[in-house]
Amino acid sequence: MSERALKGRPTRMRGETVAAYGFLTPTFGLLGLFVLFPMVGALLLSFQKTDGFGGGTFNGLDNYRTLVSDSLFWRSALNTVLFTVLVTPLSMLMGSGIARCCSIVCCRSVAFSGRS
Length: 116
What we know:
Layout: H1 3-45, E1 48-49, E2 57-58, H2 62-68, H3 71-108, H4 110-113
Antiparallel strand pairs: 1-2
């Protein structure tokens, strides 16, 4: 490469980097506002004893101790895991099968084969 080309390259790359950060800034701002901020709020709320209205009192880990000792929680956690393990692969297989069938039908069709 010529010396002139090498000198212009870092400036262009810097401009592209600034543009990339410019495009990413609103995304990360909205992510923080609508995802991270509520998650932190929910985490802080989980350490409080409250009736759902007004302020709560700090409860420490008592809510989590109650949760761990509750058999209904463990049953619902098991149901969630089983549902995820069974339904996700089945839905992926069904979707792939339907896509394959559509692909075979479209490829054999006269309209899409290029033959007249």
